[in-house]
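This entry is listed as follows:

___
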Amino acid sequence: MIRTSHRDVLAGATVVITGAARGMGAIYARRAVREGASAVALWDVDEALAAELAEELGTSRCRVVACGVDLDSAAQIAAMAQRTRDELGCPSIVINNAGIVRAGQFADQDPSRDIEQTMSINALAPMLVTREFLPGMIADRSRHHRILNIASAAGTLANPNMSVYAASKWAVIGWSESLRLELVRSGNDHVAVTTFCPSFVSTGMFAGARGPLLTPIMTPDSASDAAWRGMVAGRPMVLKPWTVKLGMAFRGVLPTPAWDIVADKVFHVYSSMDHFTGRT
């Protein structure tokens, strides 16, 4: 892995961020402007909110553009990608941050609203967004390129009452890691892929959820900082907090019945979503 600084990656960069109008997406946008990006595209379903942020962040050195797009629509993704290329050029950094969560028992999940929409926005959209820009990123060897995919600790360990969300994040991890390997093995490691797997983050998206044993609810600032630093450095995967790694290690060595007891009775992973309410 080539060591890089934020100047190597951010100076003069064009950045595309999905789910950019609020929460961690807005934090990434502010940091991109602060660290020297020349253009930032704020992709969000709430175009008005994205426009407010764009007006706040835009400077003479950095053009910030609000882009209203529904990531549940492949056609809208393709159209917005073309608009972004036309207005700003091909991005050198893509941050797939947007996501939704629908909690509850799988038997109660609505096939369209809960299952299809969650998989579409959380898993399919990052693939489609990245596919739009990847050829241009590969072709441009004049600078370092970065793809940051926001997955979740839920994609590393099964958890009841969030089966569809977990499935979408497992998909992101598998795709993101496979893409990273394809780029490395094809000699295109100037495009580095980072997968970020945090536990619960206090953005409001997981309101009511409780962190497992020794796993505090992360703040948006601390979570985004870990993801950002990992992306700039080109680290393949960032797992936060440390208990996510511990859980993966236990799950890897314990028989399933033993792990179920440890996860449920010791770490309280399986009850973490019992009081989930979500953003209201």
User: Anything to note?
Assistant: The mean pLDDT is 93. The chain has nine helices and seven strands. Residues 256 and 262 are 10 Å apart (CA to CA). The chain has one domain: 6-266.
